[in-house]
């Protein structure tokens, strides 16, 4: 790109200067010829003195003279060995065509300007300016002044090589600089990765070394603060469990003691009603405590338990498609299923079945009649991406951030949803989030919507791809 810009600037400047010189020189020669009252160019050119008179001073420029029919009468060329201009007087049998030149208008008369070799008459392309010669208002021929583009092209070639070489050196220096800068940035990030692995094992004592005062250092400081918060949270959790154990043990001890005393007869019959009332109160206390513990558990870890196993997600998708066969035929959908024969993932099979089922159900519901329904399952090293596309109504940009909210429906963008309550996508995203993955949506105006999520590949696949260590 840089080379293109430089060469374009050089070519533009050189062309402008050369064109101006050709225009001025051609006008001067035109004035000389017409000023001598020339009526017949043939006789004028054949006069040796006149031939010398027509020669121009610039050694890099040459000229042609043609009769009114384009017949070539006079030509100068540059000798490659001596560099001198050599005149040639011709008989006009060879004609030139000005089709490649553009007519221009000026105060000093019209002229023709462009680049041409006149169908091989000239050995190389030349910048040419041609002017019409007249006598008493009658066209008697043309004078053409030209300059080869070889020198201009050579300068441009040298410039391109220089820019290319300079760019290579700059790129090499940039790569070296980026390497050291990247190492400087990645070292604390690697430390964070190791600390994160320790956190996953329940050890919150790991910390990231802080160097300097740049943005990465600020990130390391924030990471250490997070680690401290996690350690405190773990301590609070342990304290909570200890407190709960104590609160459970106390009423259970009371209940057990009173029941044992009633059974042994230590408590007389007339007082048993009272103690049974105490036991009932303790039971209700236990019930409330268990309810509170369950509420906390639901908030912290989710209500649903997942059974992670390795299974073929491609087979699950096929079964779901078969279950929708009747609805697909009713809407005459063009179904595209792109997947390898077996794509093993590590997840909860029933939960993922529910996710894919919900996405396919929505896709079929909102696809236009005769539209496309596409399911694509693509392995990505340690992940597997599942995408469901429907060709139909789209989702507006304003609604996309809310499509996964509970009970959210948008009639203006998905107006076919008249029976759903708006929980399908919320449930699907909750399940995918519980797997540590992400469910997303893209909407392309005039085409349709694509819902996509990833799952961890089966551990055997991850080991094969190098994402997990062997053993």
Given helix and strand content, the structural type is alpha+beta
Alpha-carbon distance between the termini?
51 Å
Low-pLDDT parts are 295-300, 411-415
CATH architecture of the largest domain: 2-Layer Sandwich
Q: C-alpha Rg, in Å?
A: 44 Å
What is the highest CATH level, the class of the largest domain?
Alpha Beta
* C-alpha geometry: elongated
Q: What is the percentage of strand-forming residues?
A: 15-25%
Identify the strand order in the major beta sheet: 3-2-1-7-6-5-4
What is the count of helical runs? 11
What is the helix fraction of residues, given as a range? 40-55%
Q: Your description of this structure?
A:
The structure is a single chain. By secondary structure, the protein is an alpha+beta fold. It folds into three domains: 2-148, Beta-Lactamase, CATH 3.30.450.20; 215-301, Signal transduction histidine kinase, dimerisation/phosphotransfer (DHp) domain (Helix Hairpins), CATH 1.10.287; 308-464, Heat Shock Protein 90 (2-Layer Sandwich), CATH 3.30.565. The protein is built from eleven helices and 14 strands. A seven-stranded antiparallel beta sheet has the order 3-2-1-7-6-5-4. Helix 4 packs parallel to helix 5 (215-264). It is elongated, with a radius of gyration of 44 Å.
Supply the key terms.
5-stranded mixed β-sheet; Beta-Lactamase; Helix Hairpins; alpha+beta; 471 residues
């Amino acid at each position: 790109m840089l080379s293109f810009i430089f060469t374009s600037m050089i070519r533009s400047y050189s062309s402008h200067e050369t064109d101006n010189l050709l225009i001025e020189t051609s006008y001067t020669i035109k004035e000389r010829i017409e000023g001598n009252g020339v009526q017949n160019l043939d006789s004028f050119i054949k006069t040796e003195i006149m031939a010398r008179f027509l020669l121009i001073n610039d050694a890099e420029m040459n000229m042609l003279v043609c009769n009114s029919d384009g017949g070539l009468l006079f030509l100068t060329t540059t000798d490659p060995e001596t560099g001198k201009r050599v005149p040639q007087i011709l008989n006009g049998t060879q004609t030139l065509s000005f089709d490649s030149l553009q007519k221009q208008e000026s105060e000093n008369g019209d002229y023709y300007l462009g680049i041409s070799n006149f169908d091989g008459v000239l050995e190389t392309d030349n910048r040419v300016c041609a002017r019409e010669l007249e006598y008493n208002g009658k066209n008697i021929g043309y004078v053409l002044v030209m300059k080869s583009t070889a020198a201009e092209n050579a300068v441009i070639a040298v410039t391109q090589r220089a820019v290319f070489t300079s760019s290579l050196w700059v790129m090499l220096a940039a790569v070296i600089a980026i390497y050291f800068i990247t190492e400087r940035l990645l070292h604390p990030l690697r430390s964070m990765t190791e600390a994160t692995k320790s956190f996953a094992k329940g050890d919150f004592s790991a910390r990231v070394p802080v160097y300097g005062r740049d943005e990465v250092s600020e990130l390391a400081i924030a990471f250490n603060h997070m680690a401290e918060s996690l350690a405190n949270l773990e301590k609070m959790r342990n304290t909570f469990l200890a407190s709960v154990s104590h609160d459970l043990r106390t009423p259970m001890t009371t209940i057990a003691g009173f029941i044992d005393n009633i059974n042994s007869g230590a408590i007389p019959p007339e007082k048993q009603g009272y103690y049974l009332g105490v036991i009932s109160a303790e039971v209700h206390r236990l019930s409330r405590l268990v309810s509170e513990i369950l509420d906390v558990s639901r908030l912290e870890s989710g209500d649903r338990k997942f059974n992670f196993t390795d299974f073929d997600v491609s087979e699950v998708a096929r079964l779901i498609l078969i279950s929708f066969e009747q609805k697909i035929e009713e809407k005459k959908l063009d179904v595209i299923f792109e997947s390898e024969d077996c794509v093993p993932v590590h997840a909860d099979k029933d939960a993922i079945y529910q996710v894919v089922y919900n996405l396919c159900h929505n896709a079929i519901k909102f696809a236009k009649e005769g539209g496309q329904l596409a399911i694509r399952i693509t392995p990505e090293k340690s992940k597997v991406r599942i995408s469901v596309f429907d060709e139909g109504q789209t989702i507006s940009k304003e609604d996309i951030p809310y499509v996964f909210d509970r009970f959210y429906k948008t009639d203006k963008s998905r107006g076919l949803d008249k029976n759903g309550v708006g929980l399908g996508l919320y449930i699907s995203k909750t399940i995918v989030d519980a797997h540590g993955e992400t469910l997303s949506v893209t909407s392309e105006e005039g085409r349709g919507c694509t819902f996509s999520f990833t799952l961890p590949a089966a551990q055997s696949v991850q080991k094969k791809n190098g994402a997990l260590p062997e053993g």
